[in-house]
User: What shape does this take?
Amino acid sequence: MSVREIHTGIVRPARHEIAALSRIPVASIVDALGKTGALSHCLRLQTPGLVLCGSAVTALGPDVTVRRAAIDLAQPGDVVVVAAGGGKDRSCFGGVTAEHMQSRGIAGVLVDGMVRDVAELRRIAFPTVARGTTPLNYTYPAGLEDGAVNVPVDIDGIRITPGDVVVGDEDGAVIVPRDQVAAVIAKAQSSMTAEEEKWWARRGQSLGAVQQLADSGYTIL
Assistant: This one.
């Protein structure tokens, strides 16, 4: 993986595609992706009731200047992805940075690590996915560590390429590859409609499960 590189331009899906994904539950998106793309349960939405959705601008490593470069390069509607290595000892994101990002129209953040100031993040309604919280952060200015901006990063075994779409809700988070966005939207919307129609047709009726179990050899007492 390349380090000490700052890539200033990325290709993003259309805004209407990102808006469409933001209205689809993460569970339905994962189904449409064939059960792929989901980050582990350890990465959770720290701001309940909100939805994280936007094109990924990646920051490799926890270095503060690298992260600030990613914020500077992010456009309105983007999600900054901080590939901080999953560390749980110190937070590398908090309320002051969130307020600055929000003032620039950035849609939220995914941190492969810890965050703090959760009450502030919730108060300003800034969608934040992270591994957890701790009040202890890095001491700045810290020694510069090798990092990069807008390079592919790996989190939980999932490759995130700049311009992919990050979607997070209270079920978890998923990465939608940029070149699959349109297909995922179409498949998820079709499946959700079919599922709703199926269950509406069954409303109030027996599911027939007892008979199915009896037919398969269960003893019904």
